[in-house]
Amino acid sequence: MKKISAVLTIVMLIAATAVASAPEQRDSTYQVAPKVPIKAYAFNLDDVRLLDGPFKDAMGRGEKYIMDLEPDRLLSRFREYAGLEPKGKIYGGWESQGISGHTLGHYLTACALAYAATGEKCYLERANYIVDELALCQKANGNGFVGGMPNGKKLFADVAAGKIETANFGLNGGWVPWYTMHKLYAGLVDVYKYCGNEKAKTVLIGLSDWACKLSENLTDEQFQSMLKCEYGGMNDAMANVFALTKEKKYFDLSLRFNDKKVFAPLLRNEDKLEGIHANTQIPKIVGAARQYELSGKEELRKMADFFWETVTQHHSFVNGGSGNAECFQRRGELHKHLSPVASETCGTYNMLKLTRHLFSWTADGRYADYYERALYNHILVTQDPKRGMLMYFCSLKPGHFHTYSSPYDAFWCCTGSGLENHVKYGDSIYFHDDEGLYVNLFIASELNWKEKGIKVRQETRFPNEPKTRLVLSCDNPITGKLRIRHPYWIDSAMQVTVNGKKVEAESQPRGFLTIDRNWADGDVVEVALPMKLRLEKMENCPSKAAIMYGPIVLAGQLGREGFSGKVPYSKYHMVYASMPTPDVPVLITNDKPIDQWVKKVPGDTLKFKTVGVGRPEDVSLIPFHEAHHQRFTVYWDLFTEAQWQEIKEEYEERLRLKRELEEKTVDVVTPDMQPERDHNYQGKGSATGRYHGKMYRHAYPGGWFSYDMMSLGEGPIGLTVTYWGGETGNRVFDIMVDGKKIATQKLSKDKPGEFFKVTYPIPEELTKGKEKITIRFQTHEGAMAGGLYEGRIVKMEKK
Ligand SMILES: [Zn+2]
User: Fold this and answer.
1) Ligand 1: centre distance to CA 8 (Å)
2) Considering the entire predicted model, what is its pTM?
3) What pLDDT is attached to residue 9?
4) In the chain, which end has fewer C-beta atoms inside a 10 angstrom radius, N or C?
5) Cα–Cα distances in Å, from 377 out to 81, 162, 381, 538, 546?
6) 591: which DSSP letter?
C-alpha cells in the first residue's frame, strides 16, 4: 500500500470526476447535486485500474484503435463548414455521409475515458487538441454553433425560423442532426470532467446557448414535431449542462427535449414499444433518469424503471441486447427475430448507462446482474479480438457469424459507441456509500478508494476459474461493510472466507452478501463463484433456448463454411445478412436436465460438448465472447425424440427452402428505418406502417417509392416481393427498374390471412454490368402501391 498524502488526495479528487451518468458522491464537476437519495455512488473511472484478463485485453485493443485514428481527419468537416482549411482528409463510410461528425463526439469521450482509465497523457493531448480546434471552428462560425454535418448551419437556421420537416432519421434534409450534436455535447462534458479542460466547458456553454437561442421561438408543438427525428440524448446533455452551470435555462431546454409521444404510454406503464426504433428511445430514457436525479420528479423515476423492466424482460435476448433491425419487436416474440441484424450495439451501450442510474438509486442486485450479462455477452463480444474492429449488430441468426467494421471507411453509430465501450470497463465493477463498498462485478482490477485510504485488489481469472479474491490494503484499520454481489446464477448460499475463515452471513440471489467488520491491511476475502449449466428459454417459445454457464452465454461452434477473403470485415454492416447458413444441429434432449447432456471438457478454459443429443451431430460450445471468426449459434431448437420424429421432415424441408432462398439472394430490403436508409429509400406520398408484427411501406394515389438494390451485373436476376394476402382497396401499381416497367401488380385479397411472395424476373439488359439498380413502385392513377413487406433481389435460373 502506497501512502498518499492528504494534499495529493485533494488534488486528485478535484482533477478526477465521475464516469458519465451515474452519480458520484463528491463530484466537483457538477454544481448541482442529485436531489434524490443515492444508495450506491459510482467511483471515478481513474480510481480503478484493470488487471490482466479479457477486459484488459479488450481495452488494450480499444486504446490502439483510438490512437490509430487521426483527429484532423475526424475534424475535417468541422473545419470545412466553419470556412477553415481542413487539415486532414475526411474518413469514409458514415463520416463521408450526412451523419459526419458523430464520430468526433464519441472520440472525445473515448479519449477522456481512456485518459481516466490509464492516466496516459497521449489521450489527454488528443482531447485537448480537438477542443482547441473546435474552439477555432466555433469562433469562425460566430454564433456558438460548431458541427460537422453537411448543411448544418442552414438546416438549424431553418429550425430556428420554425421550418421543421421531419421523418424518422431526417430533419430538414439532414440525417439525424441532433443525434450528431448530442455526441459532441457529451464529448465536451466528458473532456471537461475527466481532463479538467476549461476550454471544453467554454465551447460547451457556447454551444448550449446556441441551442437555447435556436429553440426560443419554437412552440411546444414545433419542438415536439422536431423530436420525431432521432436526437440521441439531447435531454441528457442539457441536464448535464444545467448540473455544470446551475443555470435553469439549460434544464428547461432539457425538458423540452423529452419526446411526449414516446413518454406518454411509458408514464402510464404501457408497453407501446413494438415497431419503434430502439436506440432512438433508450437515450431519451437515460436523459429522463438524469432529469429525475436533478429534479426529484418521481414520475420520471417510475418511467425509467418501467422502461428498463420492459426492455430487459420482454424485448431482450439472452445476451442483453434488444430489438431486431434496430427496432423493438412485438413483446415476447423475439424468437421470430433471430437474425444477423439483432441486438444493435448502441442499444446495449445506452441500456448500460440507464442501468447504472437505476443501480445507483436502489443498490438492487438485479441491475448489476443485467449489467454483467450485457457486458460479457454483448459488449465484450462486439470487438474483434484480432484487429480490435467493432460490430454494429451482434448476430443471433443460428449458423451466422460476426461482421466487423473496416477501420477507416465504416464509422457506423456503433463504431462511435464502440470507441467508448472498451475503455470504460472499470466503471461499474465497484460502487460505494458512506458505510462501505459494493463489489458488483468479478473482473480483475484494483480499486483505489482515496477518500477512505483503502485499496482493494481483485485477483481473478473469472469466469475461467469459479472464484475471486479481494486483497485489502490500508494504512489504518477501518470499519465498514463489504458487500459482495450474490448473482442470480448462484442459487445456493454464497461461500465466502475472510483470511481463510468462513463468513457466516445470509444472502439471496440478486442481492448482496454483507461482511461488516474492522478491516486491516492485508485482509484477504475469498469468494467462491460456482457456475452451473443452465437453459434460458425464449419467452413464449420454450422449445428455443440458449445454454448458459453461470453468467456466460455459450455458443455452439459451427465451422467456417462460406468464409472467403472478404469476410468478415466490411464497410457495409448488413452486406452478409443474406449469406447462406449451414444447418444447425437440433438437440434431442428429451427434457432431461442439462448437466446430463452437456459436459465440460477438462481443463481451465471454458469448453463444453453436447453428448448424445445433437442431430445430426453433437457440438462443441465455448463462451459467446470467444466465438469469433467462425459460424456459431446461441439459440437451439430442443425436442424430445417423439416430437422430433413427428416434425423432422417438415423441419428439414423448411430449412432446405430457407437455405435455397439464401443461396439465391443477392440483396434484401425491409421497410425498417436503417435498411431503408442503407438502400437509399426515396419516395413521394408514401408511408410506413406495421401489420402482423412486420413493417410495410405503401404509397398513396399519385405517390411512389424506390430502393437502390444490389445487382449481379451478369446473369439473370429477379425481384421477389412479400405482400400481405388480405389487402383491400384499390391497389394497382407498376414495378420499375431504372425507369423501365417490368410488371404491373394488383393486390386484392390474394391470400387472406397470410403473407405471400411474387417474383418478377428482371430483363438482363436492365442489369448487365450494373452493381446497383433502382426499384420503383409507382401507383396507377387513383390507386395505391404496396404494401411491400420485403423486397429481395434473387438469382434466377438461366433460360
Ligand atoms: Zn449503433
Assistant:
1) 40
2) 0.91
3) 35
4) C
5) 40, 45, 6, 16, 12
6) T
Spacing, Cα 326 to ligand 1 middle (Å): 8
Among residues 545, 490, 505, 498, the alpha carbon closest in space to that of 523 is found at 498
- Residue pair 557/630 in contact (Cβ under 8 Å)? The answer is yes
CA 375 to ligand 1 centroid distance, Å: 16
Q: How far is the CA of 502 from the centre of ligand 1 (A)?
A: 46
**Three-class SS of residue 723?**
strand
Alpha carbon of 612 to ligand 1 centroid (Å): 40
CA 335 to ligand 1 center in whole angstroms: 22
Mean pLDDT for back-to-back runs of 10 residues, the chain (799 residues): 36 36 82 95 96 98 98 98 98 95 98 98 98 98 97 97 89 95 98 97 98 97 96 97 97 98 98 95 98 98 98 98 93 93 96 98 98 98 96 93 92 97 98 97 98 97 97 96 98 97 97 98 98 97 97 96 72 63 92 98 94 97 96 97 95 88 89 87 92 90 95 92 94 97 95 94 95 96 95 89
Q: What's the 485 CA to ligand 1 centre distance in angstroms?
A: 30
CB 669 within 8 A of CB 675: yes
How many angstroms separate the alpha carbon of residue 629 from the centre of ligand 1? Answer: 21
Task: Yes or no: say if 532 and 466 are a contact pair by the CB < 8 Å rule.
Answer: no
Query: How far is ligand 1, taken at its centre, from the CA of residue 117, in Å?
Result: 23
CA of 757 to the centre of ligand 1 (A): 31
Between the CA of 391 and the centroid of ligand 1 the distance, in Å, is 9
DSSP H or E segment with residue 445: strand 445-449
3-state secondary structure 72-104: HHHCHHHHHHCCCCCCCCCCCHHHHCCCCCHHH
**Distance (Å) from CA 72 to ligand 1 centroid:** 23
Q: How far is the CA of 422 from the centre of ligand 1 (A)?
A: 15
The residue assigned the cell 440458449 is: 546
CB distance 483 to 438 below 8 Å: yes
Task: Report how far residue 606's alpha carbon sits from residue 759's, in angstroms, rounded to the nearest whole number.
Answer: 47
Q: Which residue has the cell 422430433?
A: 644
Measure 346 CA to ligand 1 centroid, in angstroms: 4
Task: Give dist(CA 391, CA 513) in Å, integer.
Answer: 36
The CA–CA distances, whole Å, from 683 to 676, 697, 777, 783 equal 11, 10, 9, 16
Q: How far is the CA of 655 from the centre of ligand 1 (A)?
A: 30
Which three cell numbers, joined as nine digits, stand for 519? 478491516
Compute the distance from residue 455 Cα to the ligand 1 centre, in Å. 36
Distance from Cα 175 to the centre of ligand 1, integer Å: 14
| Distance between CA atoms of residues 571 and 575, nearest Å | 9
Written as one letter, the residue type at 315 is H
Quote the ligand 1 centre to 316 CA distance (angstroms). Answer: 16
3-state secondary structure of 614: strand
Distance 345 CA to ligand 1 centre (A): 5
Residue 683 CA to ligand 1 center (angstroms) comes to 25
Q: Ligand 1 center to residue 347 CA distance, Å?
A: 7
3-class secondary-structure state, position 435: coil
- Measured from the Cβ of residue 569, the count of other Cβ atoms closer than 10 Å reads 16
Burial of 697 (0-12, 13-18, 19+ CB in 10 A): buried
> From the CA of 389, how far away is ligand 1's center (Å)?
14
Q: In the prediction, which pLDDT does 6 show? A: 37
pLDDT value for 7: 35
CB 263 within 8 A of CB 201: no
Q: How far is the CA of 414 from the centre of ligand 1 (A)?
A: 4
- The span from the CA of 791 to the CA of 799, in Å, is 23
Core vs surface per residue 138-167: b (16+ CB within 10 A) or e: beebeebbbbbbbbbeebbebbeeeebebe
